[in-house]
Amino acid sequence: MPDQPPIRSLKEGDPFAGILLAQEAAFKTSAKGSEYLELKLSDASGDLKGFLWDLRAVEGPLEPIQADAFLWVKGAASSYNGRLQLRLDKVRFVPDGDVADVARFFPVSARPVPEMLAELDDRLAGVADPWIRRLLTALFREDEDLRRAFATAPAAKSMHHVYLGGLLEHTLSILGMAARACDHYPELNRDLVTAGVLLHDVGKTAELSYQRGFGYTDAGNLLGHISIEAEWINREVGKIPGFPEELRLQILHIVLSHHGRLEFGSPVLPKTPEALLVHYLDDLDGKLEVMFRALREEGAGAWSPYNRALDRMIYRTRWPRAESVQK
Amino acid sequence: MPDQPPIRSLKEGDPFAGILLAQEAAFKTSAKGSEYLELKLSDASGDLKGFLWDLRAVEGPLEPIQADAFLWVKGAASSYNGRLQLRLDKVRFVPDGDVADVARFFPVSARPVPEMLAELDDRLAGVADPWIRRLLTALFREDEDLRRAFATAPAAKSMHHVYLGGLLEHTLSILGMAARACDHYPELNRDLVTAGVLLHDVGKTAELSYQRGFGYTDAGNLLGHISIEAEWINREVGKIPGFPEELRLQILHIVLSHHGRLEFGSPVLPKTPEALLVHYLDDLDGKLEVMFRALREEGAGAWSPYNRALDRMIYRTRWPRAESVQK
Amino acid sequence: MPDQPPIRSLKEGDPFAGILLAQEAAFKTSAKGSEYLELKLSDASGDLKGFLWDLRAVEGPLEPIQADAFLWVKGAASSYNGRLQLRLDKVRFVPDGDVADVARFFPVSARPVPEMLAELDDRLAGVADPWIRRLLTALFREDEDLRRAFATAPAAKSMHHVYLGGLLEHTLSILGMAARACDHYPELNRDLVTAGVLLHDVGKTAELSYQRGFGYTDAGNLLGHISIEAEWINREVGKIPGFPEELRLQILHIVLSHHGRLEFGSPVLPKTPEALLVHYLDDLDGKLEVMFRALREEGAGAWSPYNRALDRMIYRTRWPRAESVQK
Amino acid sequence: MPDQPPIRSLKEGDPFAGILLAQEAAFKTSAKGSEYLELKLSDASGDLKGFLWDLRAVEGPLEPIQADAFLWVKGAASSYNGRLQLRLDKVRFVPDGDVADVARFFPVSARPVPEMLAELDDRLAGVADPWIRRLLTALFREDEDLRRAFATAPAAKSMHHVYLGGLLEHTLSILGMAARACDHYPELNRDLVTAGVLLHDVGKTAELSYQRGFGYTDAGNLLGHISIEAEWINREVGKIPGFPEELRLQILHIVLSHHGRLEFGSPVLPKTPEALLVHYLDDLDGKLEVMFRALREEGAGAWSPYNRALDRMIYRTRWPRAESVQK
Amino acid sequence: MPDQPPIRSLKEGDPFAGILLAQEAAFKTSAKGSEYLELKLSDASGDLKGFLWDLRAVEGPLEPIQADAFLWVKGAASSYNGRLQLRLDKVRFVPDGDVADVARFFPVSARPVPEMLAELDDRLAGVADPWIRRLLTALFREDEDLRRAFATAPAAKSMHHVYLGGLLEHTLSILGMAARACDHYPELNRDLVTAGVLLHDVGKTAELSYQRGFGYTDAGNLLGHISIEAEWINREVGKIPGFPEELRLQILHIVLSHHGRLEFGSPVLPKTPEALLVHYLDDLDGKLEVMFRALREEGAGAWSPYNRALDRMIYRTRWPRAESVQK
Amino acid sequence: MPDQPPIRSLKEGDPFAGILLAQEAAFKTSAKGSEYLELKLSDASGDLKGFLWDLRAVEGPLEPIQADAFLWVKGAASSYNGRLQLRLDKVRFVPDGDVADVARFFPVSARPVPEMLAELDDRLAGVADPWIRRLLTALFREDEDLRRAFATAPAAKSMHHVYLGGLLEHTLSILGMAARACDHYPELNRDLVTAGVLLHDVGKTAELSYQRGFGYTDAGNLLGHISIEAEWINREVGKIPGFPEELRLQILHIVLSHHGRLEFGSPVLPKTPEALLVHYLDDLDGKLEVMFRALREEGAGAWSPYNRALDRMIYRTRWPRAESVQK
């Protein structure tokens, strides 16, 4: 993949040869009975439809050519009905082991991961409460597997922040807003809020599978991320001698209640100000990300298409900002 | 009322004579058939039960002694089953006109009104967009009746910020959080958000009656505060030549959608980021106020009584804040 | 379009040449990679699928051939699998300006508009209350733009009365039933009911776009028709000196509450008999229209297909009417 | 009861002796430990609280003095806290058999029963369809027990038309509106509508108990009135040789679906225009009756108290009717 | 059909000639404009797609070749993209009368019908209560049409036990569990439970049409199976002189309430232990059947596809059973 | 307490002296201003109202006389309005330490605890799967604190099985039904079901407080019993080397999903047959217990009072069981 161009940069007529991820792969039959292969191919820059009209041009066996496989393809970009597609001459399956950097085939956060990890460490360093800092350090600094997963996972399977690094980006964004909220509402316990925000979705690293496409793991489907993170908190707390039971309850409560309502999968309602705040800021940040993404989409009219995550269309006409001296 | 002590300052055995507001007034009959008068009496500091066991001690007619009437009472504080009450010797109806400062009999915001109005004016001065500033100035500075009402009204009949000045206090608190949110999410239009926050509940000045007790006006019951404020915005916009239609739509949309869901009385869902933000911060601020109030209530255990506004009990045990140098 | 036959009158083998509205237009690719054009073409009489198998037969540019465009087409009706379609030889884009009478390409009310306007005027003339008559006259007789729009708009984007003139037809039908209900329930205020019925959906003229296909305007999506008509009523009332505030509240209340439930977009529930009546008769008339339309559809079995507006199938078997002397 | 005055006609100080129905009866204890009897006593004109302060004044045994018993009482009307009550000197149980006309102790319809029965017979005579007429005649004319019950039962246990004769009054009112609706919507089958209206609540004669107070029978609680009337229709249809199966289905469908929604106890949704109409007119008539009753209640402000049947307060201020020549 | 192989037994390349049921039949057009016939063909063993690429190979008229028709087809099994299909050379319509055993073309219960009927008779013989036994015997033994239908009908149109004999299999399975429950909870009336289980879905024999495909009859759509079976119970009870009214109410109550909630179509909630039990065991048995079927489906991963009946995916990984001596 | 009689055995006029639990305690004032003490006093046999009319008869301080305190009382049973009460001459606070056997003051299961524990051990011995047996043995045999609590706790704070030992009784009853269900549905994994049933409510021992009255602990309110038991399962599994992860997921899934719906507090839906079964049998057993209790209540009519747990009245008329030879 070193030399291959991002597919979003292709123009009509450009030749292309390189490895792409098949997000979808279907053998179809034409009306006359001839078979062809229809693909949805992606790298980190985006995706394109691809068509191979003669199956004899497949090199090697047909069977492994499936969704979630890497494929080496050769062909050219052609425009059809105003949309670019790849008309292919050759297709060949590529084992995962032969692909240098798998993550480069997925959508990723616009923020660089090292920058985000540095911000995370700053937040951890700012925690004054010794018990909370110890718990968070154990999980987010010392558990290297978790730290790596936390920096890689998307925030959701669909809905919002659906890209690698999305979980960390979403968490840091809530953390930023939460810090401002603690400045505004002095009754809040800042360190407790920090713990709640950092832990509220950490179980998604085990709930979601994101090595290929984005889906749920067995544990994710059977337990849900809230139960998974409760389990991890209990396990880490168990390793810290003398960890106060009251603090364990307060933290677990924020995590368990952060979906805000039973029908959204929280077994309890938020009953402390910190739990209430984390619920609202989490919900707000996810929904705003969806809206901002819709605003940035190209080639659009005043209204976004119907958005399933928000169950509405989004109004994209923006009232221009007035720049002023006094601000 | 100049010399009379706040009733919250009374101790067992203290005599009391002065004017109080009767929030409740009921003539009851005892098992033996004798009648007595049971009152709930309040000034701005709080309320107490009052009992007059011999109706012949009422001076003047009985009829006007009703809920929402001012009464001159004389008696003494006595303790009964751990709670203070007023055992009365004399009760007399007082016409409203004889009461110097009616507002002093109601619960009021802890923040002084002049301070809040100054903060409001600062916010108005900070609006850069000329159209938005003109609209807000017309309503909140130039319309003196509205300005006065806006500084006096409670934020709700029950639920949250139920005291004189509560509407302004609630609005300013959201405005503070909203300013922080605009720092955090730069895509937001700050002036549009300011307009939405200031206008979102302004119709409550006409929806609620708060001269005596807190209730709804006819217009409040028949139209609701959202329709009332939409009417006012349209009326003021109509007086500003050239006011942009697009801006009118954007502002009205925030106001109409700020309850967030149709079943909560918003005829449309929030479809812009600014509308979404105003909805969330409004909801959050109201609910946090309820929680903080519950935390401050005296003589309580770890759990508040069932809270109807939040449909849950609130956990009052606080995890202590760690004070630290590095923050 | 003067000489072109209504497409519903075509029979297999009939040639056709004329202007039709493209409700849908898609360039598709066949299994072998050749491109073709698939259209849904309509005039006021109905719609047909159309196919152009060779894109070289398009005269002029391809780009403007889109949904909602007028097209001149030439070809012949052919029967395929029991359904008529148009097999096309020529297709050409036609600018709107070249189309004589745009409205003739849409489904229209079965009742002639002049007849309906005459009935409207009769109803207005029958209003005894001078304030109500003045308000209604200002809107429905003197505001010629509104009168024209009111006579043209459909009653909804989908659901019921989805054709030009549908709003007026629906309004008059409710008005007829409402007059009968006022005869039956003498406690009702007849003029107030008339005002409520006439105004309850008038904002749909601005909520819906119906120049091409039927959709929502920006104002429709952002405010909803209820808020739009409340705005108009307030504006007109403001022009009538001395208009009684009590009457303004009563009328606005009917309009605001006519969806009957908060989750259907009414910010308040009907709290007067007149408001309750308007809600029920509006709902009933819309749903009956859906049922009667389903009964009239041809080529059908005992059951209509699943009807999305009513969330059920409709039973089309009719029990025959007994004609009798004594009636 | 011949000579005893209606209790609604009593004034302060009036003596009273006669038989009343005890809607409630409770032996209570005073703070000092003495026992007294508190009653809610009613005749057809209304109800009053009654107090007997000395139980030794009860003639005969105490046990039968219970809710739903008839009592002979003697005492005087006294005013307490603005409300009239009966202060009693004597109380004695009266067996049902000793009460001449039990029905005179309950609230009754304002319309005389014979007048209503005559209207019912007119409606029956107007049915042109021979099968429908035969079915309705069998039930409402020939089955004398049912006819009598139909003329006596209330329309509901609470909610609306809660008085003797209320079921017939409610049914006739719907029938009147339905006749007007059939004039307005000519597609409707008038006789089918008549059948549906007459039968839709007839099972309430067996669902409700209304000999004493208003409650549910065992069959009412276990089956509901809809299933009861379906049973009766099937039984009567079975006695009419050749009754068309299609008509049986159409009638049963109206009856089964007339609550309009599954969660209101209809096992199927209305799927014919006639079923839809009956559902709407039934619902409308019941709710209007509640509103009109609230408007007529005396001594009230602009707003009714919270009304449980409608889940709202009702606005009682009426906009005056304009009387006009041209109507 | 005597010699034709079950289509599930076909392998790639196998020739096939015989009669199959067309569950779906569509004439389609290829991109080039040629027409072909696409079928979904089934016998009791399963179904396969079938394609006839040249319509001239249809013998006889095209019109009757529709969904739900029997067709004689000739062709060969071919594998396409890993799935078997039938590539056809000849297709001919076959009138129903020419098909020997129509039922053999539908999915059927895995349990032989005679075995199930024997179990049914055993259950009937075990009923000790004479009234209940008489009622059940009249319906399930003496009414031969009903007995036959009861042994043939599916349990539902979709959802669960969707195959011929499914109703009886489902009923017997609940009966087995119910017998065990009566052993466990001795307060239950065993014979009443038996009656409730046997009758709870018997109306499905008239609600569903299952001669061809599975759908609803007119009576099914207009009345629902619950009302149908209530009707039948009343009819049979009417034929048994002296049948106790109390027992009729108890049995009807179980049947009417067995969907457990009003929104699921039961007009009353279960109010006796027997009614509650029948509701739970019915619901449980249907849902378990769905799960067990999902577990048995071949070629599957750890998770079933989304299951509409249960609104979830089903986890198919099984924890192996430990076989042990002591059990 | 050795010699004092159960209060349920008292008859009018019986003297009583002994220790009782005050479930409620209120100092009230009479109309004349004298104070008295009203108590609700209980032992395991039931509860009675108690009145002390002269507060000077209290021995020792007044303050500790509160709800949930033990009191020594002396007085006599007197009948008032058909109900027994205790008229007291002496009342004295008793410290908990002075009460021999606290549990004897609460309602208890009708089944003796040793018998229930023996049945529990039998069930444990019958588990064939070595991993499951080891897990269950660790929790229910080796953890003596848990075993004791499991044998003592009620099953709920209200709703069903609200008495000491109720949790174990409820669990064993489900276990019995579950064993029968595993006989009936052979696809079920019996040992997995056993684990699920035993663990599904075990966290209630920490969720509920039942030392005095029945309420929720802090952990119960903040986490809920489902999260508590998930925590315990994870902790015990962590102590068993090599415990299979798949089995851990399967067991946790049953526990987490056993409320069956998200809005009832389960964060995931049941997705395995075992999870589905445990949910249904748990729900059924709790509701049947409520019904059977209502049937057994004395002095009742055909209908129970409105039952909040089931949101309905329960029909208490029983159809008599037929005893027969052939069963």
Automatic annotation (TrEMBL), chains A, B, C, D, E, F:
InterPro entries: HD/PDEase_dom, HD_domain, YhaM_exoribonuc/phosphodiest. Keywords: Hydrolase. Pfam families: HD. CDD domains: HDc (cd00077). The keyword Phosphoprotein does not apply. The keyword Hydrolase applies. Residues 167-287 form the HD domain. SUPFAM superfamilies: HD-domain/PDEase-like (SSF109604). This is HD family phosphohydrolase.
